[in-house]
């Protein structure tokens, strides 16, 4: 732990009077605090809620807390590295949100470990697994949003595209695209109106405004 914590007694801080290799122990209710001097004027301070006695773990008479930390610190570093590779966190000043982002990263890693331990699952990369996991988590919310009556058409089309992308009944079907890359004049309206539109007829591939068009179910448009 960092040495600038005011809860640490001054005797546990680095001092030129402390002998190299010496260790100080401090015991509380369920916590043990130690201060080890590896070099002159240096001190390593650790706190543990697992060890509650003065024990040594190797031939060099290192405290058991230090030996246990050296054995397990690689796992912590590996977890931090994996969380940093595919991170879902964003910059925030709200500490509950920061903890939530960290929990998301750790949960993704733990779920992927459980997935690969089951021999019946196909082998996938962690990136693909996280993508599928995220889609399954947000799919119920997207399905609820489709029930909103005044949802904009572009948002509804995007949600339907993502929901049906992996659907078994729509694997060989594609949703017709009725959006134009550039606004054009409606082909049905009189030229004097000069009515611009962002949409096109999916059957004739011509620009058409919303006033000249009629709505269809997506399944009906797919079967045209």
TrEMBL record:
Name the record gives this protein:
PiggyBac transposable element-derived protein domain-containing protein
User: Highest taxon of the source?
Assistant: Eukaryota
Keyword Cytoplasm among UniProt keywords: no
Chain ranges passing through the membrane: 97-118
- The UniProt record lists the PiggyBac transposable element-derived protein domain at 1-112
Arranged from A to Z, the UniProt key words for this protein are:
Membrane, Transmembrane, Transmembrane helix
Q: Which PANTHER family match?
A: DUAL SPECIFICITY PHOSPHATASE 26, PIGGYBAC TRANSPOSABLE ELEMENT-DERIVED PROTEIN 4
Task: Write out the ranges of the annotated region (Disordered).
Answer: 167-187
The UniProt record lists the keyword Transmembrane helix = yes
């Amino acid at each position: 732990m960092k040495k600038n914590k005011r809860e640490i007694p001054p005797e546990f801080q680095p001092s030129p009077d402390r002998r190299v290799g010496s260790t100080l122990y401090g015991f509380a209710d369920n916590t043990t605090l130690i201060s080890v001097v590896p070099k002159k004027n240096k001190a390593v301070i650790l706190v543990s809620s697992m060890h509650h006695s003065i024990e040594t773990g190797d031939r060099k008479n290192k405290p058991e807390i230090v030996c246990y930390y050296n054995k397990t610190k690689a796992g912590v570093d590996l977890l931090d590295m994996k969380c940093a590779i595919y991170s879902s966190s964003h910059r925030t000043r709200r500490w509950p949100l920061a903890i939530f982002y960290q929990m998301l990263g750790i949960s993704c890693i733990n779920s992927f470990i459980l997935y690969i331990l089951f021999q019946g699952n196909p082998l996938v990369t962690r990136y693909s697994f996280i993508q599928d996991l995220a889609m399954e988590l947000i799919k119920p919310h997207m399905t609820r949003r489709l029930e909103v009556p005044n949802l904009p058409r572009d948002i509804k089309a995007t949600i339907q595209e993502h929901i049906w992308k992996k659907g078994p009944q729509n694997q060989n079907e594609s949703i017709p695209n009725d959006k134009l890359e550039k606004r054009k004049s409606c082909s049905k309206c009189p030229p004097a109106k000069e009515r611009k539109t962002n949409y096109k007829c999916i059957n004739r591939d011509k620009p058409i405004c919303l006033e000249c068009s009629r709505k269809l179910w997506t399944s009906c448009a797919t079967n045209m």
